[in-house]
Amino acid sequence: MNVIEVIQEKYSSLTKKQRLLADYMLQNPDAMCFVTLKDLCAATKVSEMTILHVCTALGYKSYNELKYEFRKYVSIQSKIEVQKQNLYAIADVPHYELSDKANVMAEICKEEFEQAALLYANVKIEDLFHAVEMLLDANNIILCGRGVSMQAAEFLSMRLATLGLPSVIANTEQIDSVQAALPFFNRGVLVVPISLPDYYFMTTKVCEFAKERHASILCLTDSLKSPIVPFGDHVLLAPCATRLYLNTVAPMMALINLLTSALNIEKSARKNNKFSSPEEFSRFFLRERT
Question: Which domains does the chain have, with CATH numbers?
Fold first, then answer.
């Protein structure tokens, strides 16, 4: 049985106060993956001893063991949800569109062009340079996303590395990857969530946690209605609608290209040690020749 089924099975044998805790766990399995014992006490208004007694009643030796089971449960549920979404994302072209396949393809090309035109028409140069300042002011940069957003995060990380700025990538589809990034979240850290439809819930939760830890947040998304926007200190938008898939990543890649181009311009203007790593590394190869 998974942890949710265990709680449901043991529920009737719990005390009234223990059931309050069990209710919270059932309603917030995502939070249970990461919440500390102290924070869980504050959220549920029960004592640490009550929580530990519930762990024992459920058959777990410690609170960490309980959290492990929740991480395992959420990870499995996430994979199931991804499979459902993929089934939707690769839906066939309707039969009535197939009588003129060339026309359908021409329409798609036109739509892709219009998305690109929309990006370039609406992007503001001052917004790009403000985002650059956030990147330069950060002690550490954490990029996060999943699916095609993860591909965009990897592209951004590669561009940043080329310019001498290190970054860490958290794949929000993988609990262990998220867990490894969480200790970095504090003042002086810049979190860059990339979220496109279907707006993966764990990416939003990471933003919420980052906000609580007073990290700066630069949101890269497609709409001001995106669930990560309320947590952002600054937002850059790239339209992503496409008829055959859940989204198209091309405009987001173009936005990242613009952002890192602005960063390169600022790098050229500043000429400081923050960007020196690639040049310093190249010297090791020059030494071998002398």
Answer: 3-86 (1.10.10.10), 105-272 (3.40.50.10490)
